[in-house]
Amino acid sequence: MSRNWKLARLVAALTLLPAPGAAEEPAAEPRTEVLLEEIVVKSRREPRADGLEVREVRETPARDLGEALEQTLGLGKVRKAGIASDVVLRGLKRDDVNVLVDGTRTHGACPSRMDPPAFHLDWAEVDGVEVRRGPFDVSQPGGLGGVVDVRTRGARPGPGAEVNLGAGSSGAMESSAVASYGGGRASLLLGGAFKRSDPYLAGDGRNITEVIPATSTGRYRDTSDHQTAYDVRSGWAKVGLTPAEGQQLEVAYTRQEADDVLYPYLLMDGIRDDTDRVNATWRAGALGPLASARAQLYWTRVAHDMDDRDRCSSAADPAACAGGLAEAWSMRTEARTRTLGAKLEAGLGGADAAVEARIGADLVVRNWDNETIRVRRAMPGQPYVGEASIPDVTQTTGGAYAELRHALAPSVRATAGARLDVAESYAGVDRRDFYATWRPDTTPERSRTDLLFAGNVQLDWDAARGLTVFAGYGHGTRLPDPQERYMALAGLMGKPAWVGDPSLRPTRSDELDAGLRFTADRLLAKAQVFHAWVEDEITLVPLALASGATARTYAGVSARRVGGEASARLALPLRLHAGAAVAYVWARNDTAGTPLAEVPPLRASASLRWDDGRFFAEAEEQWAARQDRVDPALGERPTAAWFITNLRAGAGWRGVKAFVGVRNLLDKTYAEHLSYLRDPFAAGVKVPEPGRTLYANAQWTF
């Protein structure tokens, strides 16, 4: 019996054990009041912020953070597989969006984003997620599109434990267990999680390994429904100490191992993906002249291996999918990233002061190193040749920031922030000859130093009881990542080369945001609009030589984005709750005079929920418009409109909760617009969303 199944059976067995000495819990609080309180809690967030509660995730079949965040207004995902979806915020992704876990950064190692930052934690670790849109956070470098701020859970006072079990269509199963003890001077939390699945089925009955055409050498050798689509194991620990009155020290470590992840979106699959996260944070309240203080040191590492052993391209005769090579694969990439970060921050002026200030300094060192090895079929003996596709690039960014909050009047608050960074990029392996081949009129450099400035001004006005109006201007910048500047992969087997541009300049965005938030006894309504002017927005573009050789490369273009979001949650009579949301982004590449690539269409949702405190039932409709604003230069194709119906129900009593549901009730066949990639390792197909998906989740807390 494999260790995975042993772990699953162990966690399942734990749920059958009584809680030793557990005190009887009081009867559950009426859910109607709980949901009203949730409306109140969400209304207390900053007007520009939205959040996702763990309760909302447990009621869905979401496999990871990227998929779960799709429930949050204005967010979407890039689906490449049954798991590991990438986060998209207002049509921005990659380094345009800061995904932080307790203030730390984890950079994926795969150049095709098999392992985006949101993939490297389990939901059982999470206490809550807050999403802040636009370039209005100066406490972190980059992230001109916004911030996804994940806060992990800590130990509550006294002993406690939680067990979660889940199962669903296509053999999906997950389990997690968390135990903790919180004392007066010290606390400890331990947790573990496991999840796996077979390939899911689309609405037309095909599983995701069948979406690649039979004429493609990237098709799967085995397209049965009983392969392993993903296998992920996680373990974590957090220790809390109180070294002195008003001070707290936390040290946390997480280890994640993901094996055998199938990516139909791409031409290779994830064989191994190991992640380590270490974080130490010290916090203090009033400390001399300071209202607060914080120091943080963290280190993260990702080791990612991918190859095509499950594809016909790994055969000696790919067209016939027959014969073997010297290795089990024809192409493989070994990828590594390491990130070291440090931060010092101090608060000046208390909550009652007319002026509050926050000042800080931080350092982020990011290293990314890839080696890609491929067979040369046209050469005698079909030898394997490797090249430094991301040539051991180190980016070091040091910055300082300050933010002021001032009450101009009892009902008017102003916020202003500024940040300055100095960043150095250096490629440890010299690939300048490769860049010069594709840009013979340039002199590429291995290193570059950039100066980046960011700042914002914001105004909040309590215009009437329950009504807050806000507006802001933000200027954001972000550094080109190591791949965009230094990618170096020769073309092979009819695929274009993949070429970075060492001369890329940092992206700069000027954005205006305005909106309002209205709260009443049973209503929370929000609306926000924005207009962003972006210079040197980094986008993928084709490149061709006179010889006929082609490549994909990166270029900085002038672009505009206009859009907004609106949502409402209303508590109705008869224990009913209604919700609705809509989001839209219009984007244009002003340099080319064409639509900007990879921008999601208009999306909307509506839901109605009945809840009496112990039982609930909910129906939801999700809808997306047709997207025909596509980039013709990259062969981007329109995506048809779609709608799906989701149902869920559940019950809770004395620490035990159970949820069941069906997503895509009518078994629609559809794909989201961001399900298609054009880089050289792309399969070139749209990856469909799951068809009718049944799921059940159970939670036991004591």
UniProtKB/TrEMBL annotation:
InterPro entries: Beta-barrel_TonB, Beta-barrel_TonB_sf, Plug_dom, Plug_dom_sf, TonB-dep_rcpt-like. It is found in: Cell outer membrane. Residues 1-23 form the signal peptide. It holds the Pfam family Plug. CDD domains: ligand_gated_channel. GO terms for biological process: siderophore transmembrane transport. PANTHER family: OUTER MEMBRANE PROTEIN C, TONB-DEPENDENT OUTER MEMBRANE RECEPTOR. Keywords: Cell outer membrane, Membrane, Receptor, Signal, TonB box, Transmembrane, Transmembrane beta strand, Transport. It is a multi-pass membrane protein. Its main location: membrane. Residues 222-665 form the TonB-dependent receptor-like beta-barrel domain. This is TonB-dependent receptor. It comes from Anaeromyxobacter dehalogenans (strain ATCC BAA-258 / DSM 21875 / 2CP-1). Residues 55-147 form the TonB-dependent receptor plug domain. Belongs to the TonB-dependent receptor family. GO terms for molecular function: siderophore uptake transmembrane transporter activity. GO terms for cellular component: cell outer membrane. SUPFAM superfamilies: Porins.
